[in-house]
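ligand=7,8-dihydrobiopterin
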Amino acid sequence: MRMTEDTHVLEKPPEGAGADWTIPQDWNAYTPEDHETWDILFKRQLAQLPGRASQAFLDGIDVLKLSKPGIPDFEELSENLMRETGWQVIAVPGLVPDDVFFDHLANRRFVAGNFIRRREQLDYLQEPDVFHDVFGHVPMLANPVFADYMEAYGRGGLRALEYDSLDHLARLYWYTVEFGLVEEAGGLRIYGSGIVSSHGESLFSLDDPSPNRIGFDMKRVMRTNYRIDDFQQVYFVIPSFEELLRQTVETDFAPLYRELESASDFAPDDIVEGDRIFTRGTQAYAREQAASPA
Ligand code: HBI
Ligand code: FE
């Protein structure tokens, strides 16, 4: 999740957090209700993901044994993940500063919020909780290619901070890691964590006639604004995780950032020259929302 004015990132690590912002998960402090919240969300999502989530995501759920009831214990989860791809899951109190976030990713540590949403927030909350972070992100980290992509992104983030070009790189994260689709033999599939962890968007992203679905292009994505408060108006489709990793590793970001400095931004619902269009959306949903904001 991207930091904005309306999310609350602290300036320095809160009491009890290390200099790297990590805290103990404190698994024993979860209440029976917390575990039950996880189980409700897990069951609801898993029921609608076959045929929708990418094979890599579904395989990750299996190899990490995430079907075990209750909020996963990060130590046990990290042991399983370490064996697959050398990644770990560590707890943080919420959003952490960009440089801290990227440094963890570059070292194959995924930071996860340790708190879980309240019962009246099952469908939407602003800050990433343990369900979004663990259910949404961690299965993909069991995939060796995607695991390398996330590390490459972390390194890229540290460099983007030097070039003052974080806004452009953050769009890459948004439209891949959070809201990406991938083309598989059976059709389009979800791999973005923001979609797989959302009851509504896991249907909307694939089935609704409203959003555009466009072939992934690194520069195009980096010029595209996004909204954080509703379903996306555009989803970008990668041909494979290998291709996403290849483009990220092979792109020379310094000249790209320089070029982007003077390039205009695209709105989320723009269709532009060169787009490979999978579906041209009606944008009916976005128009309705604009007419009657929630
Ligand atoms: N912190 N806990 C947490 N989770 C994130 O996804 C996150 C963050 N801090 C910064 C950040 N994301 C952004 O820099 C990236 O999304 C680009
Ligand atoms: Fe996320």
